[in-house]
Amino acid sequence: MMYKLIAIDIDGTLLDKNKSVSQNTIKCIRALKQDYKIVLISARMPKAMRHIQSDLGIKDYPIVAYNGGLVLHQNKILSHTGIDFQTFSEVLKANHDLNLHLSLYHNDEWFAPQEDHWSRREVANTKVEPEFKSNEAVLEDWKMYNKEPHKIMCMGDEPKVEQFYQRLSQQHNDKLHLYRSKPTYIEMAPMQISKLSGLQVLLQKIYKDIKLDNILAYGDNYNDVEMIDKVGLGVAVDNAKDEVKAVADDFTQSNIENGVANHLQKLFNL
């Protein structure tokens, strides 16, 4: 099969246990970047992806951020889809009695309600610093400027997060994707987007000679399932969820064992 584009998830797939890109991976990507489009695709905000693009030497290529909610090419917005204000407001109300940490994201803005264990953990993971403002104040500000959130991220102790998840599932099952990368997290995104839809934007707008069959993709988590299922060659790392492995065409070692680099070396004889 003729591959033309390589789509790579970041957390749990590309990054090692230190949340960094290994030298081996950098070497592989730099060897391939002249002949293949290399696209990072993640639930992260753009700012938390660009330093990884720099490490890999692929800043000229697009990024698919927020699970497909924001697609950028050289800082130009190709597509963006936010959570509507009514749903945003209802999510905040649903959290009043639980008082869980809700981080709010729009493009390169990240607002956390306060500095706490959860915000510090995200800073360590993503190397991005938030601004601190109450969720309600952010809602009012963003309404004024018509800035819908690309992502709402809930973080907290597992029993409360589970309670919130059940509540959101009942209230917003038709409006929100609810991703649980860990039992202490819920990532909320608009129902109409996915990593696959983000890739389709790229094929419609800038890579018109590329089809889904020409894409090689790597992933590990629930938000990768559709992408891994539909591309030409979907590869699951060893630490991937069973749902990802069930639809994968091929498998490689875990993210901490350089799985992506090892697979690329084998596939492209590097």
From TrEMBL:
Mind telling me which InterPro entries this protein's record contains? Cof, HAD-like_sf, HAD-SF_hydro_IIB, HAD_sf
- Which CDD domains does the entry link to? HAD_Pase (cd07516)
Superkingdom of source: Bacteria
Q: Which GO-annotated molecular functions does the record name?
A: magnesium ion binding; phosphatase activity
| One Pfam entry name | Hydrolase_3
Listed GO cellular component terms?
cytosol
Protein name listed in UniProt: HAD family phosphatase
The lineage, from the top, is:
Bacteria, Pseudomonadati, Bacteroidota, Flavobacteriia, Flavobacteriales
